[in-house]
Amino acid sequence: MRLDKYLKVSRIIKRRTLAKEVAEKGRISINGVQAKASSNVKAGDELTLHFGQKIVTAKVNHIQENAKKEEASLMYTIIKEERIEQEEV
């Protein structure tokens, strides 16, 4: 499944267009390799997403074409969530 579609279906990112923009800016990596929106995601992959001041690492549990709200959070497991402290200049 495409990365942008997976992020939307799993509800990690709310809209597919936003997921595509984040990927194009180089803020998403799959297994440590920078990913494009069209990159393929499979079960067992580790996603690292940079959201503003946060870095979220999630493991892909399984892939579904469609998921209800309750099922979406079962598609991944959050491994690590860290906050980036900005230096004051």
TrEMBL record:
Matches recorded under InterPro entries: RqcP, S4_RNA-bd, S4_RNA-bd_sf
The segment(s) forming the RNA-binding S4 domain are 1-64
Q: Which UniProt keywords apply?
A: Protein biosynthesis, RNA-binding, rRNA-binding, tRNA-binding
Q: What does this protein do?
A: Key component of the ribosome quality control system (RQC), a ribosome-associated complex that mediates the extraction of incompletely synthesized nascent chains from stalled ribosomes and their subsequent degradation. RqcH recruits Ala-charged tRNA, and with RqcP directs the elongation of stalled nascent chains on 50S ribosomal subunits, leading to non-templated C-terminal alanine extensions (Ala tail). The Ala tail promotes nascent chain degradation. RqcP is associated with the translocation-like movement of the peptidyl-tRNA from the A-site into the P-site.
Per the record, the similarity remark reads: Belongs to the RqcP family.
Q: How does it assemble?
A: Associates with stalled 50S ribosomal subunits. Binds to RqcH, 23S rRNA and the P-site tRNA. Does not require RqcH for association with 50S subunits.
Its recorded name reads: RQC P-site tRNA stabilizing factor
**Organism per entry:** Sutcliffiella cohnii
